[in-house]
Every structure is written in structure tokens, then in C-alpha cells.
Amino acid sequence: MKIQEADAKSLLLAQGLPVPPWAVARTAAQARTAAERFLAGGAEEVVIKAQVLVGGRGKAGGVKLASEPAEAERIASSILGMDIKGITVRKVLVAAAADIVREVYLACVLDRDARKVLFMGAAQGGVEIEALAAEDPDAITYLHAHPHLGLLDYQARLLAFQLGLDAHLKDAVTVAQGLYATMLDNDADLVEVNPLAIVRERGTDGSAVERLQCLDAKITLDDSALHRHPGLEELRDLDEEDPVDIEARAQGISFIRLEGDIGCMVNGAGLAMATMDLVKRAGGQPANFLDIGGGARSDKVAAAMRLILADPSVRAILVNIFGGIARGDEVARGLVEARSQQARHVPMVVRIVGTNADLAADILRGSEGIETATSLDEAVEKAVAASRREMAPA
Amino acid sequence: MSILVGSETRLLVQGITGREGAFHAGQMLEYGTNIVAGVTPGKGGRTALDGSVPVFDTCWRAAQETGADTSVIYVPASGAPDAILEAVGAGIRTIFCITEHIPALDMLKVMPLVAAAGARLIGPNCPGATSPGRAKVGIIPGSIHREGRVGLVSRSGTLTYEVVQALTDAGIGQSTCVGIGGDPIVGSTFIDILELFRDDPETDALVLMGEIGGNAEELAATWKAEHLPDTPMVAFIAGRTAPPGRRMGHAGAIISGGSGSAEDKIAALVAAGVPVAESPSQIPRLLAEAGVRPS
Q: What are the boundaries of each domain within chain A?
């Protein structure tokens, strides 16, 4: 699960990491109030950042500076409602613009090959790490935390020196170890601070001091561990979710809406992806990825059908079930039942093989509007053809 | 012979009295797998599967009394990491973990202990392995197999069944079919399994079923070119049309940061001399073109 920058910053703060204050605004007026507060507190400018769960918001015009409350309000109103990679911006983060001396990159991520947590650091921050890795691989320091001992002190110091944070050694070590603690405490699979910055601030006596600050944060959480962090589930951003995503999750169905017109219902993630690939190869366009999961009881089948039909562009449905744990007859019963409750008449191609496939065939035989197929290729072909036929009136 | 599981396997089922464990233990027994014990803490002394399998409280007791050498785990995610380590502690050397949704950080802690004991873990979130005609361990339907000499290794579940069925329908039998699981952190990689197939005199050709995410397929392709240059191998990659940044069901199946894409995997496999099928149904033909005969 991805979480918003503001929530990621809260998790870092909870580990005692240095994060400058921020406010989240859902309206331009709220953004203005927040800006007034930061400007009155001595900030020369405020930064206004779109809160969306996709990268590249800066390039899309979703990050801007303002030096007056009125300007902040104007900018916030232009960013709120903006579309960034298909997602409507509903919130902005407002913070005092930092006086940045230098930016570095620091992150920890699950390394599946090494089966360890991998730290990545670069003395050059504020850039995309993937781009840096491609351009100048030697610029990145990689090291693994020990699965039982964690990030050792010397490793944290090594990272600090590699990033050129010699003058802030103690704080840099705290940050590196804090990232690891954030990962562990929240079951994250990525904790990224980019940039981690040396910023110039005014000390209590008015003199300039340089401090290390986490200016931006990105955290993704392991979905399999969310159940043991009930507080984190609340960070799920329902603003950015389709209502169908919420229903799918409630039913234990993996569902992703896509652009096409052929609804797909499959058991198993690999088979679901392969089915979509074959639909595309046959000249069709899948309307979704849908893995109904193990078991596939008839009520789950009905729920899956609702998810698919909630998309008005669906012109045909392809059901591909390879019975193992899932029993073909259960699926078939669910399909027939869902069919009878269907408000919209969409042609359906069903292929059920494996456990109880013959019973499934008996149940489906004679069901109006349901075509059957034995092989996957045949099912895909029939579904693509059905999607191209004129639809019968409901 | 075969790999991982065979007629000599002495299988222990962890979670044998649970719903999943009981059902699949029955299926495995029916297939002819030699199940010697079950473990459910607190239910020691009873029997399972109509009296045919003794149930023990601990893996240690089960291994001591029955000589179990292989374990399969149907324990819920909250207890599965501990179940893996219990099997390791009892001296079990081949462990299949069927359980899905185990937090990745739990698996990170488990892995060094499995390795230090010299044990082999397959999964988690895997369908298990079947050596047709000899033993089936896990949840792969027994009916889809045929005995033969093609070894199959896959990251998927039902997609594996699809391909096994296609092979069987074409008369191409299998030595062993292994599902390594779709999680980001798995105990055995493609290469681990390919090494076993390399050393198996009864495996002549290979099928590798990959999917988007990570770079396990690329690593397998490089390994194959170096270590098994003359063994016929055919591959399939699921997720050619998956959009970047979206996780497709399997936690491991995501294209992120420009890596893990189907194109990269296919290019690596083709460069290693491995033809990549566009549809599971093409796999038998590609194997035949590589010289594999029906068994």
C-alpha cells in the first residue's frame, strides 16, 4: 500500500527523525491559513505540494513556491483539482520552503534477491534514483542490513561519510537507523527520504545554523502485514481509490481496472495476467485484471461479476477458471446466479477446467447468453469476437 | 528419480487438522504420497485421514518417531514463519510452505536460519511440487500430470496447472513440476531448482514459467546459458500487457522503476537460447521443435 507524503513524514517523525513542520490543506482557504502561519513564523516562502500517490508531480506542475498568503491560495486552488497521471489532486501539503545547502538521497528497500533490507545512498539528492543508477552507478552506495542485527553502527557511519555528511555525522547515523526502525515498526517495503537535506535555519539567537532535515518521504507498506498495524490501514487514501477497489478488497479479490472492454474473471494472479496477455494478442482489450483468489465460492463469483459490470465500457466477459482448490461447479453456480441478477446484458464466455469441470458444464449448459469453451485460446477468441458484436438490447 | 519429492519421500504435514491441511493431505494421500505424520500442537496422539496418519504435537516428535524428511505447511500466515523454523529445528531438510500473505520482513528473518541448517525451503505462497506417478506435495491437482522427462519450474499457481495440462494433453510427461511461489521473498529461486534438474538423470528438457516483477527470470536465463547450454528449455512470461506501477495480485508481480518488465525478461531468455511462448498452448510445440518427444 502506498501512503501520502504527509503520512510518511508522520511515521518518520514518530521514530524521532528530523522532519520540518507541515500542514495538509483540502481547500485553497486552508492552504492560505497554513501559509500565513509559516510566513508569520519567519519563512520567506512556502512550498505547496500536491498529495498524490504517483511520482513526477513536480514535473506535472504539482509543486510550487509562494511568498504571500494570497499567492499561496491562488497556487493551491490551481493545484487542487489538477489531474496528475489520471489522479485528481484533492489535498496539498504546505510547509516553509527550506533554505537548502545540499541534498542527498537515502532509502532502504526490500532486496528480494539478497533476501535482506538494502540501503541505498547517494551524495546527490533530489533526483530519481533509477535515473542516477542508470547514469552513474558508482554514485550510489549500497549496503545490506543484517536480517537479525539490523543496520550496524559502522554501516550507518559508512553511509554518512559516503554521502558527505561528515559535519552532521551523529544526525546522519540517527536518520539511517531511523529509516530502518521505520521499516521494521511498520512492515514497510520501502522507506525513502529524497531529499535528505542540509538546510540553513535560524538558531534561537538568530544566528544561522545548518541542520539535517527529511524534506520529502515516500513509504510503501507490505499489504500482507497491514492486519498487525490497524493504525496504518487508516492511512489508506480512499480519495484516490475507485469505489470498486474498496469493494474488491472487502471481498478478497485482486482487481485493477484497465482501459479495455473485455471484463476478465480468472483464478490465480499468473493465469489472470496470462489471460489478459492472450486477449490483447487476439486483438482485444482487457477491461480489468481480476484474480478471484483461492476457493472462489459462488458469492465471491457474484461479487466479481458486480465489479466487472460496474465498468460501463465492458462489452463482453471472459471467465477462465482452472479448478484446483476452486471447484468448477461452485463457480458455474455463481455465474448463473450472477447472470440472473444482471441488469445489463453482456455476453459471457466461460471456460472452466480442472476440479468438477464436468459438473460445471452441466450447470452452464443451456444458460442463455453464456458461451462455453474448452481451451484458453478458444475462450479468448470467442470473447474478443463477442466484444465486437452489436450488443443486444437489455 | 525426480527432484525434491519422490517415492522415497517421507512427508510430514504441518497443520494437518486444519481445513486446508486436512483436505490437501487427503488429496496427497490419494495420489500415493507417502505421508508419515501430521503435526498440530495440542492434538498429538490422535490420527488424521481416517486413522491412517498419526498426529504429533511437535515436528521434533514427529521426525523422531516416523523419520519424516520432508514437510508441507498449511498453517495460517501468523504462525507459518514459526512452523518453518520448527521444521528446520526438527531436522527436516525439504520444506514446502503453501501459506500465502506472510509478511516479507518475517521471511527475511527466517531465511538465514533455514540456510544455516542446510535446509531447503520452497515458497511461501507456492503450490508445491509433483513428481508424476510418485508423489505430490502441495495443492497442484494430481489429475493433470503425466509421467515423463520434462522438468517444470514456475512462479505461478493456476498458470502452472494450465501448462502442465497442455503438456499432458500433448503427450509430454513431466519428471517434476515445481511452483516456487509468487512472493517477493521466496526460499528457492528458479536457479536453485534448475540446479536440481541439472543433476537429475531423468530430466531431459525444461519449462520455465515466469512473470513480471523482479529479475529472477533474467538471472535464470544467464545461468541456463552458462550451465545447461545444451538442455532444451522453453519459457513463458505472464504480464506482457500489465501496466507499470500496478501490483498484479502476486506481491512480486509489479513493474517498478523501469525494471521487471516482460520485455526485459523475454529478451534475456531469447538471448540465452530459450524460446518464449506467446501462449501456454504453444509450449508443447516449442518443446517438440527442440527435440522433445511425447512420453
A: 1-20+99-240, 21-97, 241-388
Interatomic CA distance for residues B295 and B171, integer angstroms? 6
What is the mean pLDDT of the segment spanning A281-304? Answer: 88
Contacting residues of B for A280, CB less than 8 Å apart? 240-241
Q: Enumerate the residues of chain B whose CB falls inside 8 A of the CB of residue A130.
A: 257-259
Q: Is B227 a catalytic residue?
A: no
pLDDT average, residue stretch A276-292: 95
Closest CB to A110 among B104, B127, B211: B104
Q: Using a CB-CB distance cutoff of 8 angstroms, which residues of chain B are in contact with residue A225?
A: 103-106
Q: Of these residues, A105, A180, A240, A371, which one is catalytic?
A: A105
What DSSP string describes B191-226?
HHHHHHHHT-TT--EEEEEEESSSSHHHHHHHHHHH
Distance CA(A336)–CA(B11), nearest Å, equals: 41
| CATH superfamily, with its number, for domain A241-388 | Succinyl-CoA synthetase domains (3.40.50.261)
Of A145-159, A321-335, B90-104, the range with the lowest mean pLDDT is A321-335
Q: ipTM of the predicted structure?
A: 0.91
Q: State mean pLDDT over A34-46.
A: 94
Average model confidence (pLDDT) across chain A: 91
Is A239 in CB contact (< 8 Å) with chain B?
no
> At which residue does the C-alpha cell 533455514 appear?
B114
Q: How many other C-beta atoms are found inside a 10 Å radius of the C-beta of residue B244?
A: 12
Query: If one looks up domain A1-20+99-240 in CATH, what number appears?
Result: 3.30.470.20
Lowest mean pLDDT among A64-78, A300-314, B275-289: A300-314
Q: Does domain B11-122 have CATH number 3.40.630.30?
A: no
pLDDT confidence of residue B271: 96
